[in-house]
């Protein structure tokens, strides 16, 4: 007896094909690492697959759902003490370049984001990259709007201190 394989839900494959790169980029920004970003994207896409019966509807918002799963997964992952890594004597071969290796600026941004505490990094990515409002970020993370404001302020201050941002001549007297 063979196992019966269910057909892909209608629209799921198209969604993944059209949004995969952006979803992985979002994950990489959340984690500060391209490979971990891919893992995070897979977690979100698996959750979307399981809920596609309601996400695939015309009023469904699959990308918002995937992003929320990714944010929650990233937040839970930073709380765990052991992440399941097992050291090996030989490193695996790197397969091609990720999106973060495409320019010096993206490498600098990713390195600066990696140095931020996870809670500040998540808030900054949601506010600046995903263009979420303070209220939306607060709702996603389950924190107060004031917490979102303070984390954003601290994260931007840390990025300025790292030299990533150059103050414009308009802002200086």
From TrEMBL:
Keywords: DNA-binding, Sigma factor, Transcription, Transcription regulation
GO molecular function: DNA binding; sigma factor activity
DNA-binding in keyword set: yes
Residue intervals of the RNA polymerase sigma-70 region domain: 17-82
RNA polymerase sigma factor 70 region 4 type domain segment(s): 108-159
GO aspect biological process, one term: DNA-templated transcription initiation
Name listed for the protein in its UniProt record: RNA polymerase sigma-70 factor, sigma-E family
Species assigned in the record: Micromonospora eburnea
